[in-house]
Amino acid sequence: MVTVPELPEVEALAAFLRENAVGHVLARADLASVQAIKTFDPPLSALGGLEITGVGRHGKFLDLDVSGVHLVVHLARAGWLHWRTGLPPAPPKPGKGPLALRVHLDDGNGFDLTEQGTRKGLAVYVVRSPSEVPGIARLGPDALQVDREQFAALMAGRSGQLKGALTDQTLISGIGNAYSDEILHAARLSPFKGADKLKDDELIRLYEAMRATLTDALDRQAGQKAATMKGEKRSGLQVHARTGLPCPVCGDTVREVSFADTSLQYCPACQTGGKPLADRRMSKLLR
């Protein structure tokens, strides 16, 4: 199972770095994967010798404020941050391995940014303002900051299916494949129901499920080390990545719809009136 970092995990990583990296000087940053870096001015070397003064999050982007220069990271589908104690002083050799970037702090500790698999999407930006990152500039309101009225307006103005609406970062930011499955299950709604076709009670259920699912995930991540966050995410999932297993709510079998490069999971009894959704890629799916 690929555990894609979403709002709760990125927020937890930010909290971890606030505790362990803020106040330290970033000694140097070693690039191991040239394709990971997306900017050239300021150069990556500009971070060397500057103090890490803050760590924040924008949707699924992690933002390290290094004395006014921002090291912004998007972990993509298979990226992760690994905290290291006692990093070797020699720079890593660029190659085809998972290491993308290594950050050394002044105390000998630091962290690695890695990405598994052959499809590389992890992105690193060095910018003077986070708004210079195209993906951040396009973000919709944060999923945990949008209020119910704003959420209703966003859904009403969106044609297309709920699954796509929840994962569209320009509409609402922070939710990915896993938590959208979990939110729709908690709200008892089909992933293929039209976003602009929601009744008032369905809108309320969806909004409250979004808030509850994300805040519960954040609570479970609180205090976790970077190494244990993925396992904590997996342990709390009800339907996502649980194809063929019983739904924890009703006992029905969790089912899957596959697409070209991803899939979704749902419970027919809880979400679609007991009817399985058609699982063929180019079909018109049941609503």
Automatic annotation (TrEMBL):
GO molecular function: 8-oxo-7,8-dihydroguanine DNA N-glycosylase activity; damaged DNA binding; DNA-(apurinic or apyrimidinic site) endonuclease activity; lyase activity; zinc ion binding
TM segment ranges: none
Domain Formamidopyrimidine-DNA glycosylase catalytic stretches: 5-122
Keywords: DNA damage, DNA repair, DNA-binding, Glycosidase, Hydrolase, Lyase, Metal-binding, Multifunctional enzyme, Zinc, Zinc-finger
Catalysed reaction, written as an equation: Hydrolysis of DNA containing ring-opened 7-methylguanine residues, releasing 2,6-diamino-4-hydroxy-5-(N-methyl)formamidopyrimidine
UniProt-listed InterPro entries: FPG_cat, FPG_N, H2TH_FPG, Ribosomal_uS13-like_H2TH, Znf_DNA_glyclase/AP_lyase, Znf_FPG/IleRS
Cofactor dependency: Zn(2+)
Gene Ontology BP annotations: base-excision repair
SUPFAM superfamilies: Glucocorticoid receptor-like (DNA-binding domain), N-terminal domain of MutM-like DNA repair proteins, S13-like H2TH domain
Stated family: Belongs to the FPG family.
UniProt name for this protein: Formamidopyrimidine-DNA glycosylase
Source species of the chain: Blastococcus haudaquaticus
